Amino acid sequence: MAKKVTIAREECTACETCWVICPEFFEQNPGDTFSQVVTKFRVGGSNAEGEAPENLLDKIQEAADSCPVQIIQIA
Questions:
Q1: Residue 75 and residue 4: Cα distance in Å, rounded?
Q2: Tens-digit pLDDT profile for the chain (75 aa)?
Q3: What is the CATH number of the domain that holds 12?
Q4: What is the pTM of this model?
Q5: Which domain holds residue 11?
């Protein structure tokens, strides 16, 4: 079952951790350099919210756990 992922982008430090661990789901925004959800998985057009497919959940969870400012929420 897919899960919702939310990034508190305003608190992102652009450390690169999430998009290095799981580039299939996270990427750096070219404008503000903060993390965002790749277009393919976005929900409602928001670059801060996405629907995580089951096959990526472990990597997304690892990225969330590795985030130094803990701004990635999985529900």
A1: 5
A2: 789 999 999 999 999 999 999 999 999 999 999 999 999 999 999 999 999 999 999 999 999 999 999 999 999
A3: 3.30.70.20
A4: 0.95
A5: 3-74
